[in-house]
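Figure 6 in text form: structure in, sequence out.
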C-alpha cells in the first residue's frame, strides 16, 4: 500500500516521461550538438534542429496536459467552494488566483472555509496553503 499523501510527498512523477523521455531526448540533443561541432555541415545542423524540435514537442505535450488538468481543477474547486462556503465567502471565490485554487484542492471539506478566508486575508501562496492544511485530501489523479 502506498504511503498516505501529504504536502511533503504529493509530487507526482511520471516514470515514462521523467525517467525515459526526458533523459533520452536530453542525451540525444547533447549528442547531436557534439556531432555538429565535431563535423559541421548541413546534415549535422539539421539533426540538432530535428532533435530540438522533438524535445520541444515532448515538453509542450506535457505542459498542455498539465494546463488542461489545471483548468479542470479550477472548475472542480469553484464548484466545491460554492457548495461549502456561506454566501458572504462564496461571493469572494473569484478573488483567488489559479495557484491558490489549485492548492486548496488538498484541504478537507471541513477546513476549507477557514483556510479559504485565511488565504484571502493573508494572501497565502501555494506552498503556504499546502503547509497550512491539517487534514490532507489526496489527489491521486494528477498527471
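Output sequence:
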Amino acid at each position: 500500500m502506498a504511503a498516505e499523501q501529504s504536502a511533503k510527498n504529493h509530487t507526482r512523477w511520471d516514470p515514462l516521461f521523467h525517467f525515459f523521455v526526458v533523459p533520452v531526448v536530453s542525451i540525444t540533443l547533447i549528442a547531436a550538438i557534439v556531432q555538429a561541432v565535431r563535423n559541421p555541415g548541413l546534415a549535422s545542423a539539421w539533426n540538432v534542429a530535428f532533435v530540438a524540435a522533438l524535445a520541444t514537442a515532448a515538453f509542450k505535450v506535457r505542459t498542455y496536459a498539465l494546463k488542461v488538468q489545471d483548468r479542470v481543477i479550477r472548475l472542480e474547486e469553484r464548484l466545491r467552494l460554492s457548495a461549502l462556503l456561506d454566501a458572504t465567502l462564496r461571493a469572494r471565490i473569484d478573488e483567488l488566483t489559479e495557484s491558490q485554487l489549485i492548492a486548496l484542492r488538498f484541504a478537507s471539506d471541513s477546513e476549507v472555509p477557514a483556510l479559504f478566508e485565511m488565504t484571502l486575508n493573508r494572501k497565502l501562496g501555494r506552498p503556504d496553503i499546502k503547509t497550512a492544511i491539517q487534514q490532507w485530501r489526496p489527489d491521486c489523479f494528477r498527471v
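Caption detail: Helices lie at 15-38, 42-84, 87-90, 98-104, 112-122, 126-132.
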